Amino acid sequence: MAYFTTLYSGSSGNCALIRSEDKYLLIDMGKSCRTTLTALKSLGLAVSDCVGILITHEHSDHVSGLDTFLKKHPVPLYGCADTLDTLASRGTIPPAVEAIPVDGQTLEIGSFTVTSFPTSHDVPCCGYRIRTPEGRVMAFATDLGYLTPVVQDNLMGCDLVALEANYDAFSLHGGPYPYYLKVRIASDRGHLDNKACAAEILDLIQDGCKKFALCHLSQTNNSPELVMTTVYNVLLAAGIQPGRDVLIQTQSRSEVSPYIEF
């Protein structure tokens, strides 16, 4: 079987992990190298077994630990060409690291098959569809203002989907953020809210997916309780019993979340 978890997930930093046997992929690294290494150690994983790091985009909550990590551990780095160019211009990618553009391609990374797809954000950004050696398929999509047809196509037919549930609309618009930031977050190039996440989960369940990880929750504008209430209400209205028919798990902001086997 294959396993998914996040080492940490939220507006303060993001890092996800897909594991098959003793090999794994990382997606993003938005907290310090030390934090990431400590999390890997808690899972009993060696850095030498990491076959690659997939980067979604250039924002600090996705790459802030990357430069130090890569200096110590020159793992192959993957991302869209614009993102890799930006990181290179900042000096984030050491010369010893192989940086490989993924734009719309399907690549073999170790024993994983990885396809990227664009997401709607305010900088070049992508999600990933990953096939494990066992033939299991998962998709990862965060930092998207809305679910484009391309994103929806790539989420279909998966055994597990890791999807953004960034904010509760009422909490955002009634909260402390300045107006311009509220507008940015709620725009088509911002982040995904709980209702849109819940509606997509319902569609994916009807397509056959049974396991979901809810990622990138805002600390200010969301909570695990808010998003789970929204998702449960949508599913229960459709006659779907969460916990019996499907597995839905919110991912922890600052701790390693429990593995989801898929």
TrEMBL record:
Residues 12-189 form the Metallo-beta-lactamase domain. Transmembrane segments: none annotated. SMART domains: Lactamase_B (SM00849). This is Phosphoribosyl 1,2-cyclic phosphodiesterase. It comes from Gemmiger formicilis.
